[in-house]
Each structure stands twice: as C-alpha cells, then as structure tokens.
Amino acid sequence: MGRLIVLLFSLPWWIYIPASIGVVWLGEQAYEKALETEAEKAAAFEAPMPEAVDMAEFDPDRDIHAAGEVHVLGLIDHTRDYELVKSTNGVPTSTRYLYLIFGTDEAGSDVVRAALMLDKGEEARFVDGGMAEEWTLSGTGDHWVYAFNGFSSRSATLSGMASEAIAEQGLTKADDFIYIEPFFDGREAALTPRGLPDQTRQIFWAIAAVVALVGVVKRVMSVRAR
Asked: Is the entire prediction scored with pTM above 0.90?
C-alpha cells in the first residue's frame, strides 16, 4: 500500500487531470447502477412478499423476484455448520459462518441447495439475538426447518472457501445453488431506498476533486521550481 501511494504521488502533474475525469466517469456509472438497484428494490417492495417455496423445488427463473428477493423454506443440518477464517501471514483478516441449506425433507442428502454466509454480527443475531427462533418453523436435535426472506446471490465473501468446505464434507452444490442474505431487519428496511446513489456520487466526486487538486499542486510546484 505504501509503495502504491508513493507511485501515485510520483506521476507527472498532467496525468492527474484525465485521472480525475476517469474517477468522475466511474462515479457516474456507479450512480446509475445504484439508481437501478434502488428502483428494483422499490418495485419489489410495492409487490406482495413472494410465496414461500421449498428449496427442493426452487426454480431460479420462477422464484428469484425483483431485486433478487427470495422467500424459501429449507432445512439446516447444524452438524455441518462451518466457520471460515481467511488469514494473511497467519493473521485472521476475514471470518464467515457457513450454514448449509437443504430441502425441507432432505435430511441426510448430499446435495446442498443454498447456504447462509454470515459475518460475526449476523452470526450473533442469528444464534443469540433470537433470529433463528423467529425464522424457525419446525425441527428437533440438529435438524431445523427455517423460512428465509432475503436477497439471493450466486457468490459471497469467502465463497471459494465455502465451496472447499462443502466438498470436504462429501457434499455437492445443486446446479441452482444460491447464497441467501436474510432480511435481518425486516423486508421493509431491506427494500426501502436509503439515498445511496447520491452518497455514492458524492464520494466519487470528492475523490476526483482530490486527484485534480494533487495535479494542480504538482503543476504549481514544478513551475515555481523552474
């Protein structure tokens, strides 16, 4: 990181001007994408919550709705819960908690339909904060059936490690395998616009301004040096 910073400040002054324009362009692209995402969420919220579908019968073309929303029923075998820890030079840098989801009547199956990938805060809310009980439909021992309303995704943080962990347990992922990001604070909170597009735009514009300012300062210093 230090070398990168030194390199950035060692460039000719004129490079910073097109660089700042490039940052603005990237910001506008991110802004447009954020607007689309919020519009999709607003449309999803206007529609009723989707009917719950068993993960054993899950069809992504039918059961992934606007903004990537899903409402599914699935069984978690808690003997297969997994803690994933990514380390750099022996120092843990990222931790996720993996919960494997099967169809509601698929206890003992070797085909995983979906998974939760929770960070430490979400794990605490799921296990100790009462969310597991709120989402539970039935179960006993280590096998519990839950109803999850949330966003679907094909990938997640540490998804590569998750795939390795699934394979290590002698399991395979279904062709339509997804990660589920539950609505921990409810559907309304998850789908209500939060002004993120404007915030995203402002961040990029601020970065562009700093980059342009560095170029101007370097130009002034070079003129004075002459």
From this structure: no
Q: Mean pLDDT for each consecutive 10-residue tract of the chain (226 residues)?
A: 59 79 85 81 89 97 96 97 91 94 95 97 94 94 96 94 95 97 95 75 84 78 71
**Per-residue CA distances from 209 to 19, 31, 58, 216 (Å):** 10, 17, 48, 10
User: Closest Cα to residue 152, out of 55, 33, 38, 76?
Assistant: 55
Distance of CA 207 to the CA centre of its chain: 24
CB atoms closer than 10 angstroms to residue 24 = 18
Residue 208's contacts (CB-CB under 8 Å, 6 or more residues apart) are 20, 21, 23, 24, 27
CA-based nearest residue to 68, from 40, 46, 48, 42: 40
Q: In 3D, which of 111, 116, 114, 115 has the Cα closest to residue 171?
A: 111
All residues at 6 or more sequence positions from 160 whose CB lies less than 8 Å from its CB, including other chains: none
Angle subtended at Cα 56 by Cα 50 and Cα 61, rounded to the nearest 5 degrees? 50
Report DSSP state, residue 192: S
